[in-house]
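Bumping with the actual sequence this time:
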Amino acid sequence: MLDFQQQAKELDEADPLRAFRERFLAPDDSDVVAYLDGNSLGRPARETAERMDEFVRGPWARRLIRGWTDEWLDWPLTVGDRIGRVALGAGPGQVVVADSTTVLLYKLARAAVAARPGRREVVLDTDNFPTDRYVLEGIAAERDLVLRWIETDPEAGITAEQVAEAVGPDTALVVFSHVAYRSGYLADGAAVTRVAHDAGALVLWDLCHSVGSVPVRLDDWEADFAVSCTYKYLNGGPGSPAFGYVSRRHLDGLRQPIWGWMGRRDAFTMGPGYEPAEGVRRVLSGTPPILAMLPLLTGLDMLESAGIDAVRAKSAELTDYALRLADEWLLPHGVTLGSPRAAERRGSHVTLRRADFGELIDPLWQRGVIPDFRAPDGIRIGLAPLSTSFSEVYRGMSVLAELVHAQTPAG
């Protein structure tokens, strides 16, 4: 029988990113045996705690409101440019940090459909993240639009062929996730974008399960819009701000619907009427969340140092290893794979399915193994390349296998 524990040890020793694991906080009194939910909330970095303390005692305490004109007012754009460079394949002036994913999704989707007057259809898939579906349902009701649904396999995701069958001369916008939240399926961003553009439609990508774990090439894809959170693989912390991408092709004519003072051309004149700011700054509405951007800066430091291609390589190795364990320990006991088996079509999480898996989350958490559950029957094994070790995967999967075997009838 394969010695999976020894294999994990050897993989950890050969891991070129192993030093990054020591840069994350793991308190000595923590009960966590294996954290397998980095695709929902990333671990905090040690430097984040130091950076927060230094900021509170330094710029905030010493400069007070002068900090806004020192540099804070520019942070949505400067941090946005850095996200674009490090994680998105996006040139400067196209990414802005603001709001939540939901709010930015609404802003950019509304702007997109307004930019395609006379077209009444929005194409999306049935297994996209709930927020994406709900926001688009709301926009369709506001604008008297028609939603065209693509039925996607919950164990896979959207394909260019499916999009080609759904789009047409009445399509204003298509909205998909680059990595499917349930299955981890990795869509072909370039191909899907090209198909939508051939029909004259615009494309908005949800990158929440992509950014920081797989390469994204928005400029190369000729994408139109994108949104994402920053609290997963970028380790921005609970509720950290989201970002939006607007291709420079669309910036001059963009009219997003939430007109706030910070997105006005000359915010501090406080004048009558709304005139949008130049460039991607017009996506802003209210006051930027400066304190909440600090952890994100640390996450970007680490990602830039590691390099997204090295991160992707480890992501594929981690999920391959998890699949080997599942094949040996779980699939013979009624568990099925709810993710693509091919690494090139898989993001950084693996979904395993069995009818009783909802009953196992509490026992797993009580034993310090922290995956998450997605109804009706899926446990997601989320593996963050910078903070997750192969030995951690071994420990977590061992406990899951023990619980599965205990609940599997003999014979």
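The tokens above came from a reply further down the thread. The domain at 71-303 is CATH 3.40.640.10 (Aspartate Aminotransferase; domain 2).
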